[in-house]
Amino acid sequence: MVTIKSEKEIKLMKEACRITGLVYQEMEKIIKPGMSTMELDQFADKLIRANGGIPAQKGYPSGMKGVPPFPATLCISINDEVIHGIPSPKKRIENGDVVSIDLVVYKDGFHGDAARTFIVGEGSPEAKRLVEITKQAFFEGIKYAVKGNRIGDISHAIGEFVEKNGYNVVREFQGHGIGREMHEDPGIPNYGKAGRGIRLEPGMTLAVEPMVIAGKRDIYQDYDGWTILTEDGSLAAHYENTILITEKEPEILTLV
Ligand code: MG
Predict the structure, then answer these.
(1) What is the Å distance from ligand 1's center to 248 Cα?
(2) What separation in Å is there between the alpha carbon of 80 and the centre of ligand 1?
């Protein structure tokens, strides 16, 4: 179901989203080579709780038999890992790594969802370009996130931009409506035809999230039942914000 948020609900959404953005702002300052992904996870967990929030991905059901719920606060996916990587004390971030982080904060009944990709230490020019194009793809997409347009307009703009730059979008995962539930309707693919899908209305809150692969778009799932990787081992990046559709330009709620 697509939900239209009231002013009161939007106010609550904004607070969950503010915390999400804040965590990235602080993580960017401390992430460095040698750190384990679990250290980063614990840092984020503490900061969220200090702000009265709850990490919403922790305990999220896998939906697959025999696969336990997601065990951590952050999804941390490095280099050829696309999304849903599981933090571990054994997994260390190395110089030049492309580190994609996804985080959902829950507070007072509502969710804020955002993803960032950090290049830790000295990244290669290829890595820098991939991360920049992925971020830009989000901004290209949300140019169309205005009242009266359709979801397909956002999807089309993202897909076109990414492919024009020689990369591929992940097709098996997509952005989504967000609010009281982490995942609400509509789904927001990162490719597709303009003019398709539901019409955008003020009060809709959407998580728009290009997932971009430098090589071929094929992916596979690790034995852990969560981590998604690129089939050809090429780099992947992820950039996401929760946005609010308004009477004018969209408002980005998870950028602080
Ligand atoms: Mg997310």
Answers:
(1) 25
(2) 18
**88 Cα: distance to centroid of ligand 1 (angstroms):** 19
Q: Which residue has the tokens 């697509």?
A: 2
Query: Which is nearest to 204 in space by CA: 174, 239, 246?
Result: 246
Domain spans in the chain, listed from the N-terminal domain onward: 7-252
- pLDDT tens digits, one per residue of 230-246: 999 999 999 999 999 99
0.70 exceeded by pTM = yes
Distance 33 CA to ligand 1 centre (A): 24
* Predicted confidence (pLDDT) per residue in 63-82, tens digit: 999 999 999 999 999 999 99
CATH superfamily of this structure's domain 7-252: Creatinase/methionine aminopeptidase superfamily (3.90.230.10)
Q: Which amino acid is at 43?
A: F
